[in-house]
Amino acid sequence: MIYRISLITILGLLLFSCSKTKEKVEKEAAPVTKAEIKTYFSTEHIIEAEELLSISKQKHIKIIDFRKSKIYNKAHINGALNIWRTDIENNSYPYKGMMAKKEQIETLFSKLGIKNEDTLIVYDDRGACDAARLWWVLKNYNFESVKLLNGGLKAWQKVGGTTTAETVSIDPSEFTLPANSSFDLWIGKDEIMETLNSNGNDIILDTRNIDEFSGKRQKNGASKGGRIPKSILIDWSEAIDYNETHKFKSYDELENTYNHMKASKNDPIITYCHSGVRSAHTTFVLTELLGYKNVKNYDGSWVEWSYFKELPSEKDSITTIKK
Hints:
- By secondary structure, the protein is an alpha/beta fold.
- The protein contains eleven helices and twelve strands.
- The chain folds into two domains: 46-164, Rhodanese-like domain (Oxidized Rhodanese, domain 1); 186-307, 3-Layer(aba) Sandwich (Oxidized Rhodanese, domain 1), CATH 3.40.250.10.
- Helices cover 33% and strands 12% of the residues.
- The strands form three sheets. A five-stranded parallel beta sheet has the order 1-6-5-2-4. Strands 8-12-11-9-10 form a five-stranded parallel beta sheet.
- Strand 9, helix 8 and strand 10 (231-233) form a beta-alpha-beta unit.
- It is globular, with a radius of gyration of 26 Å.
- The relative contact order is 0.14.
C-alpha cells in the first residue's frame, strides 16, 4: 500500500512539473502583443504601401511623385502626378529654396487637376526626404489632406504595385488653399537671431551630415561653410532605414535617436539643413511620429543664413596634413 501511494505521488509530481515547464515555455515563446508595441504618436499623415494599393484608384486619391521630371518620366506609380522642389519655390529671393507663396501653390495644383477634397499621397525614392517638404509647405497653409508613402517607391514595388512611363491625362481644376494660414511649423532668420540674442533655451537642430555641420563641405547654393551657433547635429537619415527599406524607423528607435537632444516634448526646437528639405523631414518625424509640440523648420536654412555676412556662424578648424 505504501509503495502504491508513493508511486502515485511521484507521478503526480512529474505531471505537475511538466505542466509548469510547458507553461513557462509557452509564456516565453508567446508573441509580443500590439499593446506592448509603442506605435507612432500619429499616423494621420503616413500610409503604408499595402493600403495605398487598395485605395489608389479611388476618386479623390491623388498620388504625387515628388522627384525630378527626368526620373519621373522613366517610371512612376500609375496615375501619379509629378511635382518637384522647384515647383514649390519662391523665386523672388536672391537665393534658392524658399517656400512658394499661397497663390503659386493654388495655380500649380489647379493645373494638375488637384481638387480641394482630394487626399494627396506623396512619395519619392529617398525615404520621404523630398516628399516631406511638400507636406511641410502644405501644413503651413493649413492643408491637412496629405500622407507620405512609408518606404516610397521601393515599398510600392515590394507589394506588387506597378509602375509606368506613360503620361497622365489631366483635367484642370480650381484648387484653393484654406483661407487662413497658420505657419505653425515655420520660422525665419529674424526669429532665430532673436533666440540667439536672448540666450533662449531653444534647441537648434542641424539635420545635415557631419561634413556640412563642421564646415568641411560647402554645398552649392551656400555662400560659405559652417553652421548656426549653438547648433547640435542629428543627421536626418538617422530616422529611416536608409540602406534597406527606406521606411521610418520604429518609435523606440526614433526616441533613442532624438533623446540625444535632451529635450522634453514641449521644448522649443528649431530644425534646419541646407535648404529646408531634410529639416522638413525631421520636423515630420518629431511632430507626427514622436509627438513633439513646439517644432519649427527654418525655411531658408543654411543657404539663406550663409548669404547674409552679418549673421553669426561657427566652423570647426580643419587641419590638412601635407605629405
